[in-house]
Amino acid sequence: MVSTNGYDALLVVSFGGPEKPDDVMPFLENVVRGRGVPRERLLEVEAHYQGFGGVSPINQQCRDLIAALDVDLPVYWGNRNWHPFLEDTVRRMKEDGVRKAAAFVTAAYSSYSSCRQYLDDIARARAAVPGAPEIVKLRHYYDHPGFIAAMADHTREALDRLPAGVREQARLVFTAHSIPVSMARTAGPTGGAYEAQLRRAAELVTAHVDEGRAWDLVWQSRSGPPQVPWLEPDVCDHLEALHAEGVPSAVLVPIGFVSDHMEVVYDLDVEAAATAEKLGMALTRASTAGTHPRFVSMVAELLAEPEPVPCAATCCPAPVRPAARPGR
Q: Cα–Cα distance between 287 and 249 in angstroms, integer?
């Protein structure tokens, strides 16, 4: 049995997602609460979900991950934006006598949205539950061998699905959720960590798959107002640029996600796929890490590491004007 640093539970913390059509609008309203997002934008995103039966894949993927975990601890699950809500889960942990839990967050990188906001969520949930257990967020794992191995395997599988005649010329196009440039600049202890960590993960995956193959890091799922600069280029714009360069094929690698969200299945499998079809470009998409055995075993390995040093309060600060991110 591996050391678990005094933890007596594991808490999986995720974004959450709707599981039936009637859930979609209440879920989206939770995501954008207090941000002044126009109703028209919510209706637009709601249509994306309803096109998939009103169900986001993310909750079931959390269940699948939890079922696959091999840890000698009780495992709990709480979401930011939909059932099971984090506060309700923390209350149940307290009632069950949990004293100190490790939190595994389904986001691998440093930024306000992918780290600081989850720390704030955990703190808010604990404050709402008198006598709540101590909860320690496990470290970022963007470069962990388990995550890299999972994504490398999935990328090879996607390459193999391309027609043989264009496989060798295929570009690896790593994608991640775009964020405002101002948020990217302040990500991590000294800024710029979100982009730097994503580039490092892409480099490591490429080295495992085919070290000499050309690759790019691009962005997807922008949802902010047009006057606010966000990270670019957009994945669909990038596919058009590759086509203009004569690149015949590409593999989309959603390196910024550890499980399928609505951004993955809509923005990549629908919008990007339609762009590639229009261009006559062969395109496949690598799976997210999901329940790949190396990714699953990574969680136990993180539990056995020394307890992480808490982030400084100034790390990944909240944006002055948080941009809407309706959907996952």
A: 17
